[in-house]
Design a protein that fits this description.
- There is one protein chain.
- The protein is mostly helical.
- The chain is built from six helices and no strands.
- The chain has helices spanning about 1-25, 30-45, 45-55, 60-75, 80-90, 95-99.
- The radius of gyration is 16 Å and the shape is globular.
Length: about 100
């Protein structure tokens, strides 16, 4: 009984997150432009452009890179190798590989 309830709670939580993300994308212009810019950068296939994007965040570049890797795992069509090469180029080969 408890496992059924937990399954429903997790499904509702996922649905709320998806709906909130969709509302933010369509209702908040800055979220919309950021998401569109990020998708445009991924679609170029140019790791130098991704490296420049991550480097523009300065000290937060590792956090941004980590978040992008998680996003790439969820949105499977996005190519992971672009982020991997950008990480290796930006942080060095072994720090980028750890990240």
């Amino acid at each position: 009984m408890a496992s059924k309830r937990n399954a429903w709670v997790s499904r509702i939580a996922i649905a709320v997150v998806v709906v909130a993300a969709a509302v933010a994308y369509f209702a908040v212009p800055s979220v919309n432009s950021f998401a569109n810019d990020l998708c445009r950068r991924f679609s170029t296939g140019d790791f130098a452009e991704m490296r420049d994007f991550m480097a523009s965040y300065g000290a937060w570049a590792a956090v941004v890179s980590f978040a992008l890797m998680i996003f790439q795992s969820v949105a499977a069509p996005l190519p992971a190798f672009i982020l991997t090469f950008a990480n290796a180029n930006l942080f060095g080969w072994w720090q980028g590989a750890i990240l």
